Amino acid sequence: MRTLLSCLVATTLVAAAPAPATRKGDQVDDYFGTKIADPYRWLEDDNAPETKAWVAAQNQVTNARLSAIPQRKAILERLRALQDYEKFTAPRKEGRNYFYSHNTGLQNQSVVYVTTDPARPGKVLLDPNGLSKEGTMALSGMSPSPDGRLVAYAVAAAGSDWKTWKVRDVATGRDLPDELQWTKFANVAWNRKGTGFFYVAYAAPGQGEALKGVTKSPKVRFHAMGTPQADDVLVYERPDQPEWYLAPDVTDDGRWLTIHISKGDAPEHSVLLKDLRKPGSKVVPFLDRFDARYTTVGSKGDTFYFKTDKGAPRGRLVAVRVNHADPKDWTELIPQAAGTDVLQGVSLVGGRFVANWMRDAHTAITFHSLKGARLSELALPGVGTVGGFHGRIQDREAFYTYTSFNTPPAVHRYDFATGTSTVLHAPKVAFDPAAYVVSQVFYPSKDGTKIPMFLVHRKGLALDGTNPTLLYGYGGFDVSLTPSFSALRVAWLEMGGVYAQPSLRGGGEYGKPWHDAGRLANKQNVFDDFI
After folding, report:
1. Among 67, 257, 421, 509, which has the highest number of CB atoms less than 10 A from its own CB?
2. Do residues 468 and 521 both lie within one domain?
3. What value does the mean pLDDT take over residues 486-513?
C-alpha cells in the first residue's frame, strides 16, 4: 500500500494538467468602514452560464487527474473491503421491546429491527432501503411508544428537511392510517399511554415553495391515534415570534410536557411546561430567560433535572422545582469540573445519573447518586468516544457504543447491579487495530494557547516530517471532533500516511469559552490554531 501512495503522489505532481483560469471580479463589500474584496462572488450564482462552464472545466481536469492514478482500482477495492462490516446502534427499550438499527455493511441505509432479547437477532421492523425505487427516500426520525407497541417514524425525500410521519404497528409490521405532513426539525413525543403524540407543525407551503420558502411560525400540536391530522389539537404557538424553534418532549412519568424554545441558531433556550395530569391546563413559563442552555435530563414529581451552562460554562447538573425556577432556589447536583472537563450529557437511568464528560477531546463516563455524589467511573477500552446510556430510571441495564480511531463502533451492555460491561456487538473489520498507534500531543498556537491534537499512524513509522500527512480540523459551531473510526482513514494509514486531528478553538472541546474564542471577532484564532 505504501507503493500505491507513492504512485498517487507522483501522479498528482507530475501528470496533472494545469487548473483552468478563474476570473476575478471587482466585488468589494463595505462592512462598517472596512472594505472586503470578494472577487469570486460570481461563482455563487450556480445557474449562470459562466459558473456552469467553470464547473465543467474543473470537473474535466479533476477527473483526468483521478483517472490517471495507478492502481486506482486496487485502492477502491480496499476501501470497499474496509467499509464492508456490520454496524449496530445501541438498543432502545420501550415496554418489552428493544429497537435497534443494523447495517450488513454496504447498505445505503440501516434497517430497523425489534426484539425482546437484545442478545438475539430481531425481526425487521422497517427497511428504509425499500421506501423508494430510486433510493431518494430516507428515514429521518423514529420514536417508539412507551409500551413498545407502536413506532412513529418519519421519512424525507431527496434530502429535504420536510418530514412525513407515519405509524407502524410493531406486532403486524403494518402501517396504520395515521399520517402527518409538513413537519420538520423536531422529533415527536408520545403521551404515557401511547394513545397519541405531540409534534411540531408548519403551515403547508405554497405551490413550488416547499424547497425554497422560508419556514416560520411553528406550532405544537397533539395527534390522537386514529384521527385525521386536520383534527389535531393546537397546544402552543407564538404568532408574534415566527423565528422561534419549538421542541416538545414528555417526561418518563408522563406527567409533564416540556417545550424547549430556541431563537435561530443561538444555543440559549427557554423551557415551558404543561401539566398533562390536568385536562385543559395551560402551557406556562418555567425557565423563560433565553440566558443559557437547558437540557432536560429527567424529572421526579415536581423536580426537574437540567444539564445547563448557567453559571458554569463547562456544564453542571441542577435540580429545579416547579414554581421555584429562580437560580437561587436551584440545587446543584453535579458541579462544573474543577479542571477542563466539559459535561457533555447526563442520563437518568438505572437509579442514578450517568455523566458523559469531554476530557481533552475524548470521553469519560462517571456514575452519580440521585443526590449527585460520585459513585464510580466507567473503565473504557481506550481513548475514544462513548454514546448512549439512554433509558429510564427503573431500568437495570443500559446500552452504549464505544469507538476510537482504530476501533469500529461496538455496542456494550452495562449491568447496574454488578457494575460490569459486556460486549453485545463488536464489528469485525479486515484490518489489525494493534498495527496502529494513537497519541495526543499539545502544541502552542500563535497566541500561546495550547491546542490538543491526535496523531494516528502505523507502528514503527518514523515521524521525521517526510510522511504524507492528512491534517483535519473544524473549529466552528461548538462542534467537537472526537476519536472515531473511518474506513477511508484506515486506508490512508495503511498506505503510510499520518492522520492529525487538532481540536481548534470555535469547537466545543473545552466548553463555551473555547467556542467563543474561535467565533465572531475571534475567528482568526481558528486559522492560527490550524496552521
Report:
1. 509
2. yes
3. 97
Judge whether residue 16 has pLDDT over 80: no
User: What's the CATH code of the domain at 472?
Assistant: 3.40.50.1820
Amino acid at the residue 134: E
Looking at the chain, how many residues does it have? Answer: 531
**CB distance 454 to 115 below 8 Å:** no
Please indicate, yes or no, if residue 285 is contained in any of the structural domains: no
CA torsion, points 284, 288, 294, 297, in degrees to nearest 10? -20
pLDDT tens per residue, range 275-295? 999 999 999 999 999 999 999
Cell numbers at 64, concatenated: 483526468
pLDDT at 9 exceeding the cut of 70: no
Domain assignment present for residue 189? The answer is no
* Whether residue 369 is found in the same domain as residue 445: no
Q: Which tens digit of pLDDT belongs to each residue from 155-185?
A: 999 889 999 999 999 999 999 999 999 999 9
pLDDT for 7 equals 46
Between CA 454 and CA 442 the distance in angstroms is 9
Given a contact cutoff of 8 angstroms between Cβ atoms, the answer to whether 362 and 385 are in contact is yes
In this structure, the strands spanning 469-471 and 498-502 are parallel
Q: What is the β-pairing status of strands 97-103 and 87-88?
A: antiparallel
For residues 352, 358, 360 and 363, what is the CA-based torsion angle, rounded to 10 degrees? 70
Instruction: Please tell me the distance from the alpha carbon of residue 413 to that of residue 398, in angstroms, as a whole number.
Output: 6
Structural domain of 373: 337-406
In whole angstroms, give the CA distance from residue 444 to residue 30: 34
In this structure, the dihedral spanned by the alpha carbons of residues 476, 458, 425 and 189, taken in order and rounded to 10 degrees, is 0
Please check whether residue 485 lies inside any domain of the structure. Answer: yes
CA distances from 459 to 1, 8, 195, 494 (A): 15, 22, 57, 10
Can you spell out the DSSP letters for 208-252?
T-TTTSPP---EEEEEETTS-GGGPEEEEE-TT-TTEEEEEEE-T
Residue that is written with C-alpha cell 479486515 in the block: 430
User: Against a cut of 0.70, is the pTM above it?
Assistant: yes
Q: From CA 472, how far away is CA 454, in angstroms rounded?
A: 10
Total count of domains within the chain: 3
Domain match, 451 and 504 both = yes
> Which amino acid appears at position 434 of this protein?
A
Q: Is residue 486 part of a domain?
A: yes
Q: Comparing C-alpha atoms, which of 146, 155, 154, 144 is closest to residue 122?
A: 144
Q: CA 269 to CA 267: how far, in whole Å?
A: 7
d(CA 335, CA 355): 11
